[in-house]
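Reply to dn_fold:

You asked what the input looked like. This is it:
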Amino acid sequence: MNTTDTLNTVKHLSIKGMERMTSLNELNMSLFERMAAQQMETLNMLMEHGKRTLTLATDAKGYNTFLKGQIEAAKDLSEQVMAKSKAGMTLAGQVNEDYRAWYMSNLAEVSADLRKAVPAV
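and this is what came back:
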């Protein structure tokens, strides 16, 4: 392998490395958007619960009505929180799989590139 071949190999590996980092950045952004959307849905759910509680407090005819409404609102919120928790765990599993697939794919490419670049000893 002469100097030109070595420099071409370094150039090729550098370009491929930048492509891999770009694809990792795209994966990160995609996953961030999905996770941020889920967090915004959860925040919206909590804001709606707060709004419901305040409406209940102002519209209740008496203490018993208010207490029953609060219990029902708390029950609904807890069910929604459990559903969001399950969705969050599902999303975490998907994120794990996406990163694992990216890693395995790029590891195979790097290995193939290195086998081509480094002569057998």
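The chain has one domain: 3-115.
Hope that clears it up.
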